[in-house]
Structure formats: structure tokens, C-alpha cells
Design a protein that fits this description.
single chain; mainly alpha; I/LWEQ domain; two-stranded antiparallel ribbon; 7 helices; elongated; cytoplasm
């Protein structure tokens, strides 16, 4: 008991109730997300027109499709969990089964929370984008987070499921559908961003040689500043991920009792980008 990660400060007999509550909470969050997207769609049609309306409708429609895919995923996951409990608990009660398999149960709860949180964050990001107060990149990141959370939920469910389970096969199909819909959100967001953001014409034909040289030097300074800032943000991202893994219980225990991070593959995202070369 002392060696078990203290990821949930609740009694084991309460784990079963926690699973049901979290799945219900996730379903409720998704239903609320669908309603909010419908309201945003109506508001967008009343307050925007032309290209802006086209972009907003395309983004919100892709978000709606993603929410529907997540809703089906959660329903299928709930059915699979019931099947797992019924086939594995024997003479024990449902609560006893969850308590006996507490690590697996905690994984389900964590995955369910992550899916619900991702759906909520996606809607909030979409709301800010439609109101022109947010960043398109937020929608893209939220879509990636939802895909990752979905994979976590499927992996947690797959551990205890029978290989030939029809519900498991359906859950895996739902997961692929969620990934596809998340990719559609990313595609529609990038396409909309290109349409909305104004592009500089980059017409330098009227500049003198001195003016061109000055502009070139100023641009090189900006490039170096942005590269330095990008490098710093990548380092920050790496540290955040380390802390995330630590809190998620992925730290190994050393022989002397100290904690060390589990070895993780080096990510290309943390590499220092090459400096821009002067042509």
C-alpha cells in the first residue's frame, strides 16, 4: 500500500463510484460542448458575413463532428467497462472488482477526465477564435490533446478487455474516428487562418539600396530574436513535460529511495533550430 502511487486520495471502495461519476461527468461535458457550439454557430451567422462567416462555420462544423465522435467513444467505452466488470468480477461485487484492480481503475478515471477536459478546452478555444479574441494555434493544440486522451482511454480499456470483444473493436473504431475528426479540426483551422490573416505584400521595388540594406538588417535581428525565444519556449516545454510525467507517476524509484525520471526518448522538438543564413 505504501508503494502504490497516491494518485487518488480516496478509499478503494469509492473507486467504483468514481468511475461512474467521471464517465457521467465526461458525457455531460461533451453534451454541454455540443450545445455551446450550436450557440456559437447561431451567433456567428448573426454577427459575421463573407469570408469570416465561411471560416467560422467550417471550424465550428468540424468541432461539432469531433464532439459527436467523442460522445460515441465515451458511450462505447462505458459499455466495454460494464462488460469487463461483468466478466471479471465473478462472485465479487462491482465495487470489490474496482478496488481489487485499483491501478487499472485509476487509469480509467484519469483518461476519462482528460477526454472531458480536452473537449471543454476545445470549445473555449473555438469561442475565442470566433470572437477574434483567441489564437488559431489553441484549437490545433486542443485537437492534438483530445487525440492523445482518446488513445489513453482506449489503452486503459484494452488492458482488461477480451481480445475478441465486440465492444473493444467498436471502441478502437471510435478512436480512429475521433483522430480523423481531430485532424479535420486542425485542417479547417489552418485553412481558416490562411484566409483571415492579412498577408504582407512584400513589395520592395520602390526601396533604395540603403533602405533595402537597413530593412535586411532589421529583419535579421528579428529572426535571431524569434529563434532565441523559440529555443527558450522549447526548453520550457521540455521542463513542463518532465513535471507532468512526474505527477503522472512515471518516475522510477532508485535503490536508495530517491526518485529519478523514467528514461524518455529525445524529442526532435527540443533540438536547437538552425540559425537563418544570410543569402
Amino acid at each position: 500500500q505504501e508503494l502504490r502511487p497516491k494518485s487518488l486520495d480516496i478509499k478503494q471502495e469509492e473507486l467504483g463510484d468514481m468511475v461512474e461519476k467521471e464517465m457521467a461527468s465526461t458525457s455531460e461535458a461533451i453534451e454541454d460542448a455540443v450545445r455551446r457550439i450550436e450557440e456559437m454557430m447561431s451567433q456567428a451567422r448573426n454577427e459575421s458575413s463573407g469570408v469570416k462567416l465561411e471560416v467560422n462555420e467550417r471550424i465550428l462544423n468540424s468541432c461539432t463532428d469531433l464532439m459527436k465522435a467523442i460522445r460515441l467513444l465515451v458511450m462505447t467505452s462505458t459499455n466495454l467497462q460494464k462488460e469487463i466488470v461483468e466478466s471479471g468480477r465473478g462472485a465479487a461485487t462491482t465495487q470489490e472488482f474496482y478496488a481489487k484492480n485499483s491501478r487499472w481503475t485509476e487509469g480509467l478515471i484519469s483518461a476519462s477526465k482528460a477526454v472531458g477536459w480536452g473537449a471543454t478546452q476545445l470549445v473555449e478555444s473555438a469561442d475565442r477564435v470566433v470572437l477574434h479574441m483567441g489564437k488559431y494555434e489553441e484549437l490545433i493544440v486542443c485537437s492534438h490533446e483530445i487525440a492523445a486522451s482518446t488513445a489513453q482511454l482506449v489503452a486503459a480499456s484494452k488492458v482488461k478487455a477480451e481480445k475478441g470483444s465486440r465492444n473493444l473493436a467498436q471502441l478502437q473504431e471510435c478512436s480512429r474516428n475521433v483522430n480523423e475528426m481531430a485532424a479535420n479540426v486542425v485542417a479547417s483551422t489552418k485553412s481558416g487562418q490562411e484566409q483571415i490573416e492579412e498577408k504582407d505584400t512584400m513589395d520592395f521595388s520602390g526601396m533604395s539600396l540603403i533602405k533595402l540594406k537597413k530593412e535586411e538588417m532589421e529583419t535579421q535581428v528579428k529572426v535571431l530574436e524569434l529563434e532565441k525565444r523559440l529555443e527558450g519556449e522549447r526548453v520550457r516545454l521540455g521542463e513542463l513535460r518532465k513535471q507532468h510525467y512526474a505527477l503522472a507517476g512515471t518516475y522510477d524509484t532508485m535503490e536508495d529511495g530517491e526518485a529519478k525520471p523514467a528514461p524518455t526518448p529525445r524529442r526532435g522538438i527540443l533540438k536547437k533550430p538552425p540559425l537563418a543564413q544570410k543569402p
